[in-house]
Design goal:
Blueprint: H1 19-29, E1 33-38, H2 41-49, E2 55-57, H3 59-67, H4 77-100, E3 117-120, H5 128-141, E4 145-149, H6 168-184, E5 190-195, H7 209-222, E6 228-231, H8 238-251, E7 256-260, H9 276-282, E8 284-289, H10 292-311, H11 313-324, H12 334-337, H13 340-349
Parallel strand pairs: 1-2, 1-8, 2-3, 3-4, 4-5, 5-6, 6-7, 7-8
Helix pairs in contact: 2-4, 4-5, 4-13, 5-6, 7-8, 10-11
Length: 369
């Protein structure tokens, strides 16, 4: 029971689980955990509604969605930490509103678990003390985990040429600092170490390519700080994906690996794209698509805008016809999706001032959203 829902409405006991603990449990129980990439509370709520095990809050998507720019360290740590905080808070509120449903319109409540949110931390936004501050912000935001990469700052997207690496020692120091912050806060937050060594053009070591990527991954695991390691690869090719997993697991047979099913790759042109199940069998325990929501949203919005230019009001009428034809799409009613029925009921329970007895406008039933 919770005082944040009306009498008789329940929310899952998982509401009171620490997100990081729940994510660790999922990693232990599942062959792999998949997370779609999101960039704001709304896309995260839709992922939660579809009952995904976890959610990935993408830095590149954040740069596009909030700044309209690219992935080259152009936002501050406090900005993305606040974006993550607002997203976690929105998911917790969404759990309450969906549990209530819309009794007045005959829509039953829906029991949803809050999926753990993993967040991009780029390079840590500076030295170890910047990492210290950012890790504290992330843990206090309620995220389940985050990843850092070994590029110099300002970094660039892992699929843009010209990447340079900091020393392995510096990266290990950052990872250890992140773990120390979590320990100090009593958190079991999941830390993932990313290396961009495979495609880097500048690094302190002489080795390059896969040799350097494997060496970096092993050094990070040797430190005991990260829970997972991830090598950013340049294409969808199977061979490097398999080789990296096999080489790392020679030394660390139980190593958990991360895999970016990257939106930068043309998977549609790959004659035999590797499957999530195949990745899980190789040891890739956390799989995510960084810009999944961005590409889907951009495609849908661009199509609508082109159609509006060409056909005017008819384009929007057709959109609504398609939208309301969906049986289980919570966002087709923006009032329901944003929790108007919930707020009405709870306002009555807590004597909110100037609140009317209903939220239903006196209009024909078929015109209501």
């Amino acid at each position: 029971m919770s005082g944040l829902v009306p009498d008789g409405v329940t929310v899952p006991a998982s509401r009171h689980d620490r997100a990081s603990t729940r994510f660790r449990r999922l990693l232990a129980e599942r062959p792999y955990v998949f997370a779609p990439g999101v960039y704001d509370p709304m896309t995260a709520e839709l992922a939660m509604h579809e009952r995904f095990d976890a959610i990935y809050f993408s830095g590149y998507s954040y740069a596009v969605g909030y700044l309209g720019t690219t992935d080259m360290d152009l936002y501050a740590s406090t900005e993305i930490a606040d974006g993550a905080r607002r997203t976690v808070a929105a998911l917790r509120k969404f759990q309450l509103t969906m549990a209530v449903g819309d009794p007045a319109n005959g829509i039953p409540g829906r029991t949803l678990d809050v999926p753990p949110v993993l967040v991009d931390m780029d390079t840590g936004y500076g030295n170890v003390f910047n990492v210290q501050r950012t890790a504290e912000l992330y843990v206090n935001a309620g995220v389940a985990g985050f990843h850092m990469e070994d590029q110099v700052a300002p970094k660039r997207c892992g699929h843009i040429a010209g990447k340079a690496l900091v020393s392995a020692d510096e990266m290990v120091g950052k990872l250890r600092m992140a773990r120390a912050v979590a320990d100090d806060l009593g958190s079991d937050v999941v830390v993932m170490a990313r290396t961009d060594a495979y495609s880097a053009v500048d690094a302190p070591e002489k080795a390059r390519g896969m040799e350097l990527a494997v060496d970096r991954a092993l050094r990070y695991l040797d430190s005991g700080a990260p829970d997972l390691v991830w090598c950013e690869l340049p294409t969808s090719a199977r061979e490097p994906t398999v080789t990296f997993a096999e080489e790392v697991r020679k030394r660390f047979p139980d190593a958990m690996l991360g895999f970016n099913y990257s939106s930068s790759f043309r998977w549609d042109k790959d004659p035999d794209p590797i499957s999530f199940d195949e990745l899980g069998a190789l040891g890739y325990r956390f799989i995510f698509i960084t810009l999944a929501a961005q590409h889907s949203a951009a495609l849908g919005v661009a199509r609508l805008y082109r159609d509006l230019q060409q056909r005017g009001h008819s384009a929007y009428v057709d959109l609504q016809r398609e939208e309301w034809g969906e049986k289980d799409l919570p966002s087709k009613s923006h009032h329901f999706f944003t929790g108007v029925p919930y707020h009405q009921l709870m306002g009555e329970a807590y004597a909110a001032g100037r609140l009317g007895a209903t939220v239903r406008e006196d209009v024909p039933e078929e015109t209501r959203v």
